[in-house]
Write a structure and sequence with these properties.
By secondary structure, the chain is of the alpha/beta class. It folds into three domains: 153 residues, Rossmann fold, CATH 3.40.50.1980; 182 residues, Nitrogenase molybdenum iron protein domain (Rossmann fold); 36 residues. The protein is built from 17 helices and 13 strands. Helix 2 crosses helix 3 and helix 5 runs parallel beside helix 7. The mean pLDDT is 94.
Length: 440
């Protein structure tokens, strides 16, 4: 028997509706308490702690002298990976690279703001970054491509991957091949909180970096939060979440098919089909058992857990406006718009990590091959944060230049403001004192 939640917004109290908007990462305090000793051990012991935790958590026979993937590992991965998988990865990599190259900003610009006063910006790459590639519920070479390629396009000089080792003590073959495709400098067997600690503090083998990006479990999210004062941890990218918004122009079974894409990631995922059409909702509800039967037992169980749990299921709204309001309040990682006129809804949809428009754009295509990044803000951060991009690996430096002709007018106004705010040195620096010094 498959239990699928069916929520009618008209019957929910404000508290019940708010409950549908929660995420598993809402409170990380429990995880933070558990990861603190792990991170302290990595800080104090380095590679020895990484090896110990790989053995304990990943059940992987990793030793302290074998944290980094070797040339032999890369060669074996190239031999072992099926040709069709490699070809698909090359196709995806080409699209990802093309998209992010188009996204890269002009290196420098400057324009006249007022007579004799020029302002501008210079874009430059951050010095180093680590891409976190998860492995707990599968292997994810797509994450390696989606995180590393924009970093290389941006021009990051030192780029590494950290990822949990498998039961054989090695890095996933496809992840190694993806790392080579993307131009990554090194891959290290360091997952979970211990991996985040390694790149935050540095170990004998793993270098300390300026930034870490990539999705992960609540353990990874908690670890990032604990080192955010010494390491740029980017936008939150936690367990997968999706809203499939469907109107009356589509078949409900299609909505059900697409709802399962993200909910199969794991029991900590979240996902809703949101619609104002009772027909679509009922068709989806009827289709889900058969679609779940066509999945592996593990993935089907993940999806059932999500759709029958506190943060998943089918949401029926009174009308389209109420449905869209729910989508905006949720601010999902993935928002799929199933409609024959999907673009018409775009002005009303305010908050989402990505918006996939139309019946031919399931999120699986966005996850792998379209080109825009699939590392997206979760836990409602899509209200203020953006998809991973070239900009995450670059920084803006403001530029300014004032000519001799433009200086007097600016100095006069600046001096008035400095005096009002009580800054003597500020005012003196644009007073007659400067005029006299400039004439010498």
């Amino acid at each position: 028997m498959t239990k699928i939640n069916f929520h009618e917004l008209a019957t929910l109290s404000p508290a019940q509706r708010a409950g549908l908007l929660t995420r598993v990462e809402g409170d990380l305090s429990e995880f933070e308490a558990k990861v603190k000793p792990i991170m302290a051990a990595v800080r104090d012991e380095g590679d020895a702690a990484l090896a110990r935790f790989a053995q304990a958590f990943d059940k992987a026979p990793v030793t302290a002298d074998a944290i980094a993937a070797t040339d032999a590992d890369y060669a074996e991965a190239e031999r072992s990976l099926a040709p069709e998988v490699k070809a698909a990865m090359e196709f995806a990599a080409a699209n990802i690279r093309a998209f992010h190259e188009k996204q890269k900003p002009e290196a420098m610009w400057m324009q006249e703001v007022s007579p004799g006063s020029f302002g501008g910006e210079r874009w430059s790459a951050i010095p180093s970054a680590a891409c976190y590639v998860p492995r707990g519920k599968g292997a994810f070479p797509s994450v390696a491509l989606m995180t590393a390629i924009p970093a290389k396009v941006a021009g990051v000089e030192k780029l590494i991957i950290i990822t949990p080792p498998g039961p054989n003590g090695k890095v996933d073959d496809a992840t190694l091949v993806a790392a080579r495709m993307a131009g990554v400098d090194a891959v290290y067997k360091a997952g979970g909180a211990q991996g985040i600690a390694a790149v935050a503090y540095g170990t004998q083998t793993v270098p300390k970096v300026a930034k870490v990006v990539g999705p992960g479990s609540p353990w990874v999210a908690a670890a990032k939060r604990l080192v955010s004062h010494i390491l740029d941890v980017g936008s939150p990218a936690g367990p997968s979440e999706v809203i499939v918004f469907a109107d009356e122009t589509v078949n409900g079974a299609l909505a059900a098919l697409d709802l399962l894409i993200e909910t199969e990631h794991g029991p900590d995922s979240s996902g809703y089909l949101v619609t104002a059409s009772r027909r679509v909702a009922e068709e989806a509800l009827a289709a889900l058992p058969g679609l779940l039967a066509k999945m592996s037992p593990q993935r089907a169980e993940f999806a059932r857990t999500v759709l029958g749990g506190p943060i998943g299921g089918i949401v029926l709204a009174r009308d389209v406006d109420e449905a869209i309001a729910f989508c905006n309040d949720y601010a999902p990682e993935h928002l799929q718009v199933l409609s024959t006129h999907a673009e018409d809804y775009l002005p009303q949809l305010k908050h989402a990590g990505e918006i996939l428009l139309g019946p031919h754009t399931p999120s699986v295509l966005g996850n792998y091959v379209i080109g825009p990044d699939h590392v997206l803000p979760t836990s409602g951060w899509a209200r203020t944060a953006s998809a991973l991009s070239v900009f995450d690996f670059m920084k803006r430096t403001s530029l300014a230049r004032v000519t001799a002709a433009g200086y007097p007018a600016l100095a006069r106004h600046a001096r008035i403001l400095a005096q009002y705010e009580g800054f003597d040195a500020h005012a003196n620096a644009v007073s007659e004192m400067r005029d006299k010094l400039l004439k010498k």
